[in-house]
Amino acid sequence: MTECVSEPTMTRGRAVHRRAISEPEPAESAKSSDDARLEAAEPRAAMITVCRVDQLPPGEAVRVAAVDPPIAVFHTEDGEFYAVDDTCTHQDASLADGWLEGCTVECPLHASCFDLRTGRPSGPPATTPIRTYPVVVEDGVIRVAYGEVAC
Asked: pLDDT tens digits for the chain (151 residues)?
């Protein structure tokens, strides 16, 4: 199992603690009902195992760099999980290093804010949305349907 390593970011308000993952876990051979539903909707979607729920506390993010483009998975204070492209559409900055407030992440470079549910920026300097991906939590494991764009 890949171990999450905490990398605290600089704090300004409510900073995200970024957790780096070197590679996704291999897909399990047994398919869950969520897997079947996701694969039926988008046959090219790959289920990427991110980490266990207890490895990603509320208010933190994990960057999965083993896929291209990298994705960031956020655990909000209200217990929800969201997966988005990790790179800001304005400039090349990791959103996993940004600031999380509710369902919004602020880019650490030029303060562009993105809604984690829709990927839409709230205003300049970013004008292009980021992609969002479905997240499945099953048996205490966080998995992302990478390749299936939710929004």
From this structure: 333 333 333 333 344 545 544 444 444 444 455 555 444 444 557 899 999 999 999 999 999 998 999 999 999 999 999 999 999 999 889 999 999 999 999 999 999 999 999 999 998 899 999 999 999 999 999 999 987 666 5
The DSSP code sequence of 53-97 is GGGS-TTEEEEETTSSS-EEEEE-TTS-EEEEESB-SSSS-BGGG
Q: What is the pTM of this model?
A: 0.72
Q: Superfamily for 5-25+32-146? A: Rieske [2Fe-2S] iron-sulphur domain (2.102.10.10)
